[in-house]
Amino acid sequence: MHHWAAAALGRRGSGREIAVRVVAPRESRKLNRQWRGKDKPTNVLSFPAPELQASRAGTTDAIPLGDLVICADVVREEAERDGKRIDAHWAHLVIHGALHLAGYDHEVGDRERRRMERREIAVLRSFGYGNPYL
């Protein structure tokens, strides 16, 4: 997962870290309801880390970029339903979530959605995966 997120973030990921938590549908549903108002489990949720104080400057510790919460059951069900390879779908969702942590947001308009999708497609291609939107 690390290599997918690192490729998605590029220079933005330098010196940053992402926590990834894999959860069951029950927890995914609870978090999705609490944070997005949607009462169903979802594939990936992104939680950006709060900005840290400049006092950390000069330390060798990685600075948190945020957390990804991925529901493995939803990822598997979506891959099976859509006829996708499971590893390709995992890669797509890690990349998608990492881009959200970097500030990309496909829900604010078509221009930003296209920008995010182009980045996802390019990164996935670099790993030998096809366009997930076809």
Structure report:
The protein is an alpha+beta fold. The chain has helices spanning 2-9, 25-36, 72-82, 86-101, 110-126, and strands at 16-23, 44-48, 63-71. The protein has a 3-stranded mixed sheet. The longest helix has 17 residues, at 110-126.
Query: Strands of the largest sheet, in order across it?
Result: 1-3-2
Number of strands: 3
Oligomer: single chain
Give helix % range. 40-55%
**Radius of gyration over C-alpha positions, nearest whole angstrom:** 15 Å
Our measurement of the CA-to-CA distance between the termini, rounded to an integer number of angstroms, reads: 23 Å
Overall pLDDT level: 91
Largest sheet: 3 strands, mixed
Helix and strand composition category: alpha+beta
Number of helices: 5
Q: Please trace the helix and strand order, writing H or E for each element.
A: HEHEEHHH
Shape call: globular
Strand content: 15-25%
Instruction: Give start-end ranges of low-pLDDT stretches.
Output: none
